[in-house]
Structures are given as structure tokens and as C-alpha cells.
Amino acid sequence: MRMNRDGKRAAVAAACAATLALTAACTAGSTDSAGVAAAGKPTVRVALGVDASYAPFYLAEERGLFEKAGVNVELVKTEGGPAAAEAVSAGTAQISANADSTALPLMVTNPRLRSLGVFQSSDSYLKVVLRKGVTSPKKIRTMASIGGLGLYATHEYLKHNGIDPKSVKILQSSAPEMPGMLERGSIDGYILFDPWAAKGVAGGGHLAGRIGDFGVRYAQWLLTDQKWLKDNQDTAGKVFKAVAEGDKLVTQDPAAAAKASNQQAELPVAQTEKVLPEITFASRGINDSDFTESKKIVDFLLAQKLIKKSPDLDTVLLKGWYEQHAG
Known about the structure:
Layout: H1 5-16, H2 20-27, E1 37-38, E2 41-48, H3 55-62, H4 65-69, E3 72-77, H5 83-90, E4 95-99, H6 100-109, E5 113-122, E6 127-130, E7 142-145, H7 149-160, E8 169-172, H8 178-184, E9 189-192, H9 196-202, E10 206-210, E11 218-225, H10 226-229, H11 233-252, H12 254-265, H13 269-275, H14 288-303, H15 313-316, H16 321-325
Parallel strand pairs: 2-3, 2-4, 7-8, 7-9
Antiparallel strand pairs: 1-2, 4-11, 5-11, 6-9, 6-10
Helix pairs in contact: 3-11, 3-12, 6-14, 8-9, 11-12, 12-13
């Protein structure tokens, strides 16, 4: 995995903008969907997006932490959002990194998805960006949103400011498109992480808050499929242990994490180092607060008719798994 790095980085750059269909092509020929042994170690594809929140994975790869843990990991870069978990459902990855509000609706369509635990969380990383001239939330008429966490945060932001979300046109879009939409005046605002929040400001917009200002906090989970997990508990634990070590190193040395993010995903070093302190990088098992927050998110999804039923939280959230296999 660590040879021919220049070629690998070029492939990563192309994959960053790829759809889920290209995700399979990115990894074709390396392992089958169940993972195989490579150099005496199991091989696991881990699907994830491309931004600073995945720094523990980038640093773990750069420092060889996966190899030290006894597993070969291939990081499969996707467009973010549900695409990572969808790669797990499709069998083109064995593990993914997804926010709770993104994972939960997918757990309805694929009830085999399981949350192994949390590897980071934040109430500051996602920011509200409004266009020039929109000096008050009351002036908002149109917003853009990514699915999952973005949509949930958008509704909570509007309700917090006394605005009925039904009175605002909310356009579903991708993160890279939103700064341009804001600059053109097609939308009045959006809620996103960097670099897209910063790009909106650079294009004439302004920051109007963070998700914690209106009571939103997300947790990022490691997800897998129960069909794969039942025969690979030890392997999944090794992957999570390496991510947990990556968490510690990111916290201790943000500069090194920013450089690793640049090497692995071509993220700008200075900007990445600046935003890393906005995220709590700490791995842990599923706890009671995760169930409480998940129930709130599920209630929102049901109210919006985005799902027809709740996932079985007692089944899909593996309380105690992290402590047994990765702690």
C-alpha cells in the first residue's frame, strides 16, 4: 500500500470527485468484497469522504498505524455523505465513516448496517454561511443543503430563529456547488464544513454561526455490515484501534495531521490545521447519549417523511462492541 505513492495520490485526486459507481472502480482488483489476506494480514476497504474530519485515517495511513495493528487498509475516497455507507451496502467497502444523521436513514434501507462506535464529534465544525446582504435569518428565502446532517442542521437552525422550515425553499445540492450558488445569489445561505464554508466567505458571504449555537452536535461513526462483521470481529477491532491511535496523534500534533491530510487527500495544509481544533478527535463506544441523539434524528426524519419507520436502534447501535474489540 505504501509504494508508488505519487501514483496513488493522483488516483485519490480523481476519486475525490467520483460518484459511488466510480468507488468500485477505484478499488477494483485489490481485494474482493469480503476482504482477503495480503502479506499475511487481512485487507479491508474503508470508505470515507474528503475533508479534515477524516484526518485520523489519513495520519494512520501515513504513519503505518494500520499495518502495525495487523491489518492492511485501503482508504476509498468518496464524494462524502451517504456514498461511504452505500459502498458498504454495495460490498465495495467493508467499513465506512459516516455522521449519525447520515447513517440512520440508511440503516432503514439496509438493516444490516451496524455502528461500531464513535471516532470524532463536534458542535463547531459545521458553520452557517449567509450571502452578502442577508443580515438576519428572517431574510432567508432559499437555502441549499446536503442530505443527512446538513438537512437536519438546516431545519434546526431555522426553527431556532423562529422560522418555519416550510416557508424556506431548501435545495438539495452537493458541497462543492454551494459556494458558487451563494455567490451568484441563487441561495441565501447554507450550513457546511470547511473548505466549503471558507469558500463561501471568500466569495462574499459571511459566517453567521456554528451548529452548536442552535443545539446541534454530530458524532461520526464507524459503520460496517453485520454479514461481514460476524466473521471479522477481530479485524474490525484492529481497524478501529488504529483509528483511535490516529485520533490521539491528531490531537497531539495537528500540524502533522494537516500534512498527512494533504498527502492523502490533497487538502490545503494551513486551512486544515486551522479547523482541526474545532473537532473532538476521540474514539469511544456507543453510549446512552448516542441513543438519545439518534432518537431525536429519527423523529426528525419521520416527521419529514424521509423514512417510513425507525431503524431498530438496539440492534444497529452496537453498545459495548468498542470496549470489547477495540478499547
